[in-house]
């Protein structure tokens, strides 16, 4: 998502990251990954539970997780030390004012993320609804 941050902001939105580690983990993540957006922590996993995000051994180890890990290594990406709950999966949400969820992506397993194009498209749809226009298909 970091690569799409300028596109997100051009659409009048903001990327917000919620991690499940402790505050010191967030600081380390912010510094090591050069995070330039709001970053919060939820070590009790309350937001994760409220959003219905998956957690467990099965979602952390599967053939799909291994394949995504190998692909990441080929792309030069490396897994840093695990901070927070290693069994907790994430998700991506586009939320308009008034807490209207316009897009919800619940990761099935580790490394399962929507594409930047999907998220930007959801932002465009949300923006069209805000203006009262009919989105183009």
Features:
single chain, 137 residues, alpha+beta, Glutaredoxin, two-stranded parallel sheet, 5 helices
Summed up:
This protein has 137 residues and is of the alpha+beta class. The chain has helices at 5-10, 23-33, 46-50, 63-74, 116-131, and strands at residues 17-19, 39-41, 91-96, 100-106.
Structure description:
By secondary structure, the chain is α+β, with helices and mostly antiparallel strands. The protein has a single domain, classed as Glutaredoxin, CATH 3.40.30. It has 5 helices and 4 strands. Strands 1-2 form a two-stranded parallel sheet. The protein is globular and about 45 Å long. The mean pLDDT is 84.
CATH fold-level assignment: Glutaredoxin
Helix and strand content put the structural class at alpha+beta
Low-confidence runs: none
Q: What integer is the average pLDDT?
A: 84
Which strand order spans the largest sheet, edge to edge or round the barrel?
1-2
Q: What portion of residues belong to β-strands?
A: 5-15%
- Number of helix segments? 5
DSSP strand count: 4
Helices and strands, in order, run as: HEHEHHEEH
Topology readout:
Layout (H helix, E strand, L loop, with lengths): L4 H6 L6 E3 L3 H11 L5 E3 L4 H5 L12 H12 L16 E6 L3 E7 L9 H16 L6
Parallel strand pairs: 1-2
Antiparallel strand pairs: 3-4
